[in-house]
Design brief:
Elements lengths: L1 E3 L2 H14 L5 E10 L2 E7 L15 H14 L7 E9 L9 H11 L9 E8 L5 E8 L6 E6 L7 E6 L6 E6 L12 H6 L2
Parallel strand pairs: 1-3, 1-7, 4-5, 6-8
Antiparallel strand pairs: 2-3, 2-4, 5-6, 6-7, 8-9
Bound molecules: zinc ion.
Length: 196
């Protein structure tokens, strides 16, 4: 499964993480089904209260309101635009799901009242260079958590992605960065200087 985090969403996350400082914040991921197993986050909600330095407690009532507004905005086209899952920050820890995170997500995805086929959990934090460090994990009913690869989607933005692997503790760092186009067409400097 692939998750696209477009530039504006990354920017919003970075701004919120900066404001929250050492408090955990989180909210909903709302997105678009792009194709096959590729989804794009097009909006997030942010719950700034309820989090401490070490845990985040979601407020279901607030989430319900947010979702209703999202469905209204996307004309109830549920097949294309829907609730994708949750996100929260780990300001003091690696941005990988904790044991509690995994148990919580699994219970939500298996809740028939929620009625979803899968859920994604995005865990994020502000990196040392004010970049976004994040992992994404997919949960399915009666199944094991799966690693979700994160891409920026066009246009390219710079951020560092920590992906949670199936073991959830093995780590893989993937650097997504814009590459200057002129690189391959650079004129040979030595030759230029030699002509003088
Ligand atoms: Zn967590």
């Amino acid at each position: 499964m692939q998750l696209q985090l477009p530039g504006p969403v990354v920017k919003r996350l970075l701004e919120e993480l900066q404001v929250a400082g050492s408090n955990e914040i989180g909210g909903l991921l709302m997105g678009e089904h792009v194709r096959d197993d590729t989804f794009r986050v097009i909006d997030i909600s942010v719950q700034r209260s309820g989090g401490s330095g070490a845990c985040f407690v979601r407020d279901p009532a607030l989430h319900q309101e947010t979702l209703q507004a999202f469905f209204a905005r996307t004309n109830g086209d549920y097949a294309r635009f829907n609730y994708l899952g949750e996100w929260h920050s780990h300001p003091a820890f690696e941005p990988l799901p904790s044991g509690v995170d995994i148990a919580t997500m699994q219970s939500i995805v298996e809740d028939t009242a929620v009625g979803v086929h899968f859920l994604i959990l995005l865990v994020a934090r502000l990196g040392d260079r004010r970049n976004l460090e994040a992992s994404a994990t997919a949960f399915i009913p009666q199944g094991r958590p799966m690693n979700v690869s994160i891409s920026s989607g066009p246009p390219a933005t710079r951020f560092r992605v920590l992906q949670s692997l199936r073991s959830l503790y093995a780590r893989l760092t993937l650097r997504v960065s814009a590459r200057p186009d002129g690189l391959t067409n650079r004129r040979p400097l030595m030759q230029e200087e030699g002509k003088k």
